[in-house]
Design goal:
By secondary structure, this protein is α+β, with helices and mostly antiparallel strands. It contains 18 helices and 42 strands. The protein folds into eight domains: 112 residues, membrane protein fhac (Ubiquitin-like (UB roll)); 78 residues, Ubiquitin-like (UB roll) (Roll), CATH 3.10.20; 83 residues, membrane protein fhac (Ubiquitin-like (UB roll), Roll), CATH 3.10.20; 72 residues, Roll (Ubiquitin-like (UB roll)), CATH 3.10.20; 84 residues, Ubiquitin-like (UB roll) (Roll), CATH 3.10.20; 76 residues, Roll (Ubiquitin-like (UB roll)); 69 residues, Roll (Ubiquitin-like (UB roll)), CATH 3.10.20; 382 residues, membrane protein fhac: a member of the omp85/tpsb transporter family (Porin). Strand 3 and strand 4 form a beta hairpin.
């Protein structure tokens, strides 16, 4: 693009930068003495511009051109004026007309403006792929770059070529160009209309098919539909993968040098299919094998690059030897020898043999570092890849490559802190401490003297005050000298200049021996260049979004220094709105010489609707409700609960950046529907968001009852600091407990529809290093709520729930994690129709137990129970304490956990007790303890967790052996007979994510 622009500018100078002078005298012809040279030295009476409105402000033009009113006319000055105007990049053509004016001369500059690429829109009826972003990228039309008419047609051709690769043959691509003279921008719209995507036909194979038949090649492409006759639709990715799969098929029969290429994709007259033309050359047979040691085919292919590069040469073969050597050393064969032989046999067949002599298997058991004084051993070992044997690495992690790498890491550490003469050597000792096969590595460090900065001299600072910036650089007088620190200082200084509009600032440095021993005198030389400012911020691409919303995110204003940091911050803020799929940022006319520049933001609005559908399965000892007539298994039963979910979001509602979301959940334990309205950045403050929602929730996750909740709520989120977030929330809901499986005498008190109005405050402090798998830090939450009649609530209570979790490292690999939760829910202003001993409505109480609270219980099975049926009733106080010791178990991805969970749900705060014995079957206010072991497998979305817990003192309780009709009958006659039951000692949990 830049080359085209320069050629265009040069061509314009040669063809158009011609001074056209006309001299009129009474309408007659020009005389010889009035030829253009006769104007030389005359006074310029007038300077006119055609058109009057120029792309540069007249004040800016006056600053850069030498031709001015009342100055003396000079042909040299005219040429210099044209050159300077062209250098701005704002002009495509400039002519000068000079006429006599009295005893002087009048000049008229006739100009034609340049144009620059602005918003490019893709309007298509295509099914993805390709998506609009891919189509736009294929055009090569870059925002802010100079525009030439020929680019419109070439971009259309590029689009057609791209569409051919995706099976849209013969697509109609038309373009429309609109111009905005205010900002010299062109807006281009490409309209694409195409028929349905074409499908593959049976490919036509050109070449030798003796190794793989045409049918085998066709099958290898995987272009056939799955379980359905016919071929799939054409896409670029599918075509590329098909060719790669054919090549892989040849590799499987040792044809590593085979070539497979797609020559063409020929559209057929029916317009619905296309014929692929594939050329193949099987090449010669290349037999590559490993002898002397067993190595899997997968490992062998991964370490020998010949398989990936599809060519055979000595460099690749030698690299394979090195890789195999490192692999076997990682397995404990530290003395392994790997050599290869390369021989050609008859018919061009090539045999390559890797001869592996593994030697004895060792264990790397000891790493010793000596000679270090400035850095302690722990600091150094944190940077090393060599690891002695441990739970994670049973034979240690060692290879010669890692040993060399670690020597370099230690050297770089010292050099970056002023020890430029440091020397690091290492040696290996066999049979360490007399144990055959055990090996140790000894690293010796000769630190040498620390070099410090003697004097720092900074040259070239003229336009900026760098006093505050210079106090933050590393290369201060007396500080350690290193090139690493100088590189950081360079970035600091150049960033400061960039923030102040000096885009062309450069930094050079020089070092010389200081006057004092072991000192270095530094000289920083800065070439500031010309300062640039923002002329205007131009936003394009808005369709439904209100411009005012975008303007609030801008961090640049006309007249501000052209700061790259402010530009990037604006781009980030626009992305953070969540309503733009792409935010392109550019400076218009980047090669032009001008002090004030247009900053461009071209926005692509995201799809207004997004739909997410999910399915899942929960299995284990589920705590969910069973049929109302079924009183069996009050402690939970093994079962399966399928789940379906759907989320529909309308982004950028009414162009305000706000969104409306519908969420639906359907399972045997829950039916949930919610509509929420999200308002980001209220008060135009990025730290405040608001959410308004209505909810219907029908839940069976507690076996005792069915809970139906209808709720409206409003919430304001405040981000105080990066780790600290506050939530202010008000909810008004109606909750109903039905299908209760409890003593019928309690039904009038607990099976009531209750309206609850509650104002709450939540605090979340998260200082964990990794929320999905933390290794250090803290996590605190606090939930304070008040339900009162002043909020329209029929019941009044205070809700306090706090959580504190901490994570500590013990050594390098072991993590001690602990979590404590405490909650209390005292009631006040108790209504007359409630149980005065336990007035909190059943669905509002605390419930606990399960994989994230207490693994000695099934889900929601902790705490008080109905004395007649044994079903859980929840409580108004809770205490849980979880402790885990996390340690590596096998390799880098598998770890183990030893845990102890303690706690319970209590009927009230006054009943909270730390005793560990259950007094009788009616006593549930005691501390239940459970211990167990878990396995974690690390994945990109968090660890997969499996826990097996053993409850030391699970509660016993009375259950009713009959059905609910029998319960009602016997309760009337007071003849109910209980059966003694108990929570199982063993509990199993499987999920994603750590327990806490």
């Amino acid at each position: 693009m830049r080359t085209v622009r320069r050629r265009h500018a040069k061509r314009s100078l040669e063809a158009c930068a011609v001074i056209s002078l006309a001299l009129a005298s009474g309408g007659g012809l020009a005389r010889a003495q009035d030829l253009p040279g006769a104007f030389e030295g005359r006074r310029i009476n007038r300077v006119m511009w055609d058109p009057e409105t120029q792309p540069l402000a007249m004040s800016a033009i006056a600053e850069i051109i030498p031709v001015k009113k009342d100055a003396l006319y000079s042909g040299r000055a005219i040429r210099e004026t044209i050159e300077r105007l062209y250098a701005t990049g704002r002009y495509a053509d400039i002519q000068v007309d000079a006429t006599a004016s009295g005893d002087g001369v009048a000049l008229r500059f006739i100009t034609t403006n340049s144009w620059f690429i602005g918003h490019v829109e893709i309007d298509s009826n295509l099914s993805e792929p390709p998506n609009p972003g891919q189509i736009l990228s294929s055009t090569g039309l870059d925002l802010g770059e100079p525009f030439d008419e020929s680019q419109v047609g070439s971009a259309a051709d590029a689009i057609r070529s791209l569409l051919d690769n995706y099976g849209y043959f013969g697509a109609e691509v038309t373009s429309a160009v609109n111009r905005d003279a205010t900002y010299q921008q062109v807006y281009i719209t490409y309209t694409i209309r195409a028929a349905k995507r074409a499908r593959y036909q049976t490919p036509l194979i050109n070449g030798d098919t003796s190794v793989l038949s045409a049918q085998a090649i066709d099958k290898a492409t995987r272009w056939h539909r799955f379980l359905i006759p016919g071929y799939r639709g054409i896409t670029q990715t599918r075509t590329r993968n098909g060719i790669d799969d054919v090549r892989q098929k040849y590799e499987n029969v040792n044809r590593l040098l085979a070539t497979v290429a797609l020559d063409s994709m020929e559209p057929q007259p029916d317009g619905k299919t296309a014929l692929p033309h594939i050329s193949v050359d099987p090449g010669s047979i290349v037999d590559i094998e490993a002898k002397g040691a067993k190595v899997s085919r997968k490992t062998f292919r991964r370490n020998v690059p010949v398989f990936e590069e599809h060519t055979v040469d000595d460099d690749l073969l030698a690299e394979g030897s090195s890789n195999l050597r490192s692999y076997f050393q990682d397995q404990g064969y530290f003395d392994v020898q790997v050599e290869y032989s390369h021989a050609e046999v008859q018919n061009g067949r090539t045999n390559i043999t890797y001869l592996i002599t593994p030697g004895s298997r060792h264990r790397f058991v000891h790493l010793e570092i000596s000679g270090n004084h400035f850095f302690d051993t722990r600091t150094i070992r944190e940077r090393l890849f060599l690891i002695p044997k441990s739970f994670e690495f049973r034979r240690g992690r060692y290879s010669e490559a890692l040993r060399t790498r670690d020597e370099g890491a230690i050297t770089a550490l010292y050099q970056s802190n002023g020890f430029r003469d440091v020397k690091v050597t290492s040696r290996m000792q066999d049979d360490y401490q007399g144990r055959k096969g055990d090996q140790a590595v000894f690293m010796d460090i000769v630190e040498g003297p620390m070099y410090r900065v003697g004097n720092l001299n900074i040259i070239g600072v003229k336009q900026l005050d760098l006093s505050r910036t210079l106090t933050s650089i590393s290369s201060q007088t007396g500080q350690p000298y290193s090139e690493f620190s100088i590189a950081i200082d360079r970035e600091t200084i150049i960033r400061k200049y960039g923030d102040e509009g000096f885009a062309d600032a450069t930094f050079e440095w020089d070092a010389a021996q200081g006057t004092e021993p072991n000192t270095v005198d530094l000289t920083f030389t800065i070439h500031e260049g010309e300062r640039q400012f923002v002329r205007q911020v131009v936003v394009t691409g808005l369709d439904t979004t209100r411009p005012g919303l975008v303007n609030k995110q801008l961090r640049l204003n006309p007249g501000d220094p052209l700061s790259q940091t402010a530009m990037a911050d604006t781009q980030r803020r626009l992305y953070d709105l969540g309503i733009f799929s792409q935010v392109n940022m550019a400076i218009q006319n980047p090669e032009g010489v001008e002090s004030h520049r247009y900053v461009l933001y071209d926005l692509e609005e995201a799809r207004r609707y997004s739909v997410t559908v999910g399915a899942g399965l929960e299995f284990g000892r589920i705590g969910g409700s069973n049929a109302v007539t079924d009183l069996s298994d009050p402690g939970g039963a093994t079962g399966v609960s399928p789940r379906l979910s759907i989320d529909v979001t309308r982004l950028n509602f009414l162009g305000t950046g706000q969104s409306v979301t519908f969420q639906g959940r359907l399972s045997t334990l829950q039916q949930r529907a919610a509509v929420s309205y999200f308002v980001p950045r209220i008060f135009n403050d990025p730290n405040f968001d608001a959410t308004f929602s209505i909810l219907y929730d029908d839940t069976h996750d507690v076996r005792t009852f069915r809970s139906v909740r209808r709720e409206g709520s409003a919430q304001v989120l405040q981000r105080v600091t990066k780790p600290l977030t506050l939530f202010y929330r008000f909810s008004y809901r109606e909750v109903t407990a039905s299908q209760l499986k409890i003593d019928p005498l309690l039904l009038p008190l607990l099976a009531q529809s209750v309206r609850v109005g509650i104002a709450s405050f939540n605090l979340v402090q998260d200082r964990r290093d990794d929320p999905t798998d933390p290794h250090k830090g803290i996590y605190n939450t606090l939930d304070l709520g008040l339900a009162s009649k002043i909020f329209g609530s029929e019941t009044s209570f205070v809700r306090v729930l706090g959580r504190n979790a901490t994570y500590y490292k013990i050594g390098q690999k072991i993590i001690l994690a602990r979590q404590t939760q405490f909650g209390v829910m005292p009631a006040f202003d108790i209504p007359p129709n409630s149980d005065p001993t336990d007035p909190i409505p059943l669905p509002e109480r605390f419930y606990g137990g399960g994989g994230n609270t207490h693994r000695g219980f099934p889900e929601n099975q902790a705490g008080p129970r109905d004395l007649l049926t044994g079903f859980p009733l929840g409580g108004s106080a809770l205490f849980f304490n979880n402790t885990e010791l996390r340690f590596p178990l096998y390799g880098a991805n598998v770890s183990g956990v030893l845990f102890e969970d303690a706690g319970n749900i209590f009927s009230s705060l006054s009943k909270l007790s730390f005793r560990v014995d259950q007094r009788d079957v009616s006593d549930f206010n005691y501390m239940v303890h459970a211990v167990g072991f878990g396995i974690r497998y690390r994945t990109p979305v968090g660890p997969i967790r499996a826990d097996l817990a053993y409850s030391i003192n699970p509660p016993q309780y009375n259950g009713f052996p009959g059905n609910y009709a029998q319960l009602v009958q016997c309760s009337v006659n007071n003849t109910c007979q209980a059966s003694l039951q108990q929570i199982s000692h063993f509990q199993f949990f499987f999920s994603i994510g750590q327990a806490f």
